[in-house]
Write a structure and sequence with these properties.
Elements (H helix, E strand, L loop, with lengths): L3 H6 L2 E5 L5 H13 L3 E5 L18 E2 L8 E4 L7 H7 L6 H14 L10 H12 L4 H9 L4 H13 L1 E3 L4 E5 L2 H7 L3 H8 L10 E5 L5 E6 L3
Parallel strand pairs: 1-2, 1-4, 2-3, 6-7
Antiparallel strand pairs: 5-6, 7-8
Helix pairs in contact: 2-4, 4-5, 4-6, 7-8, 7-9
């Protein structure tokens, strides 16, 4: 759990992040800067999706944890909503934080189409917009963004896709050479296999590597 007390007493805070948590990391980075603390934002295991470069502090990303850090916050392990934590502690949400948090909600709830969304989320969205979230920028950058590399990889993956189990499962396979030739990455492959769920009868989409290991399995939400 994120400890605001630990942040308050620390001299140098490091936020560990990835593509999945960078939006929240951006918001937390802004809050810590307002405390006049030294803060670093680090992605050790993978490159954060360049499609998130519209968010504040993307240019501050590093790939190594500084040795001077006395508090490390791993946002990939957090299960508590950062926005709720900030609200409970009466922390003012400025426009940069609001934009980042709004972007995080778009990601987490699949463009607000996820089956596990409820009225609380839409109430949060309204509050964030009132706090200055640039929702048009977020919608355009996340929901309507495309890239040439993803288009190349999609052509390869759709050509090689097969249907199994009476067309209930769409099976995709991708290898390192295909990633290199297309310029795409694994996160883009994850998005591509979701399209298999739009086919009639398909209930499961599976992504395999060249050695038939499962990289991702997603079920159609009923």
């Amino acid at each position: 759990m994120i400890s605001l007390e630990a942040i308050g007493s620390a001299k140098h805070i490091v936020i560990l992040t990835s593509s999945d948590s960078f939006a929240d990391a951006s918001a937390l980075y802004t809050h810590i800067l307002r405390l006049h603390k030294k803060v670093s934002i680090v992605s050790e295991s993978q490159t954060v999706d360049n499609g998130l470069s519209f968010l504040p502090w993307f240019d501050k990303l590093r790939d190594i944890v500084p040795s001077s850090a006395d508090v490390v916050i791993d946002l990939d392990l957090e299960i508590e909503s950062l926005y709720n934590l900030l609200k409970l502690n009466d922390i003012t949400i400025n426009n940069k934080m609001a934009t980042a948090l709004y972007a995080g909600l778009i990601q987490r709830f699949d463009g607000f189409l996820s089956n596990d969304i409820d009225g609380t989320i839409f109430a949060d969205v309204s509050e964030l917009i009132n706090s200055g979230a640039d929702y048009k920028l977020c919608n355009q950058s996340i929901m309507k963004r495309g890239s040439l590399s993803a288009l190349r990889l999609k052509a390869i993956m759709l050509k090689n896709m097969i249907l199994i189990n009476d067309s209930k499962a769409a099976l995709f396979q991708v290898n390192n050479d295909e990633f290199k030739s297309s310029g795409a990455d694994l996160s883009e492959a994850y998005e591509i296999i979701k399209e298999g769920l739009n086919l009639p009868y398909v209930e499961i989409a599976i992504l395999l590597d060249s050695e038939n290991r499962v990289l991702k399995l997603i079920n159609k939400e009923i």
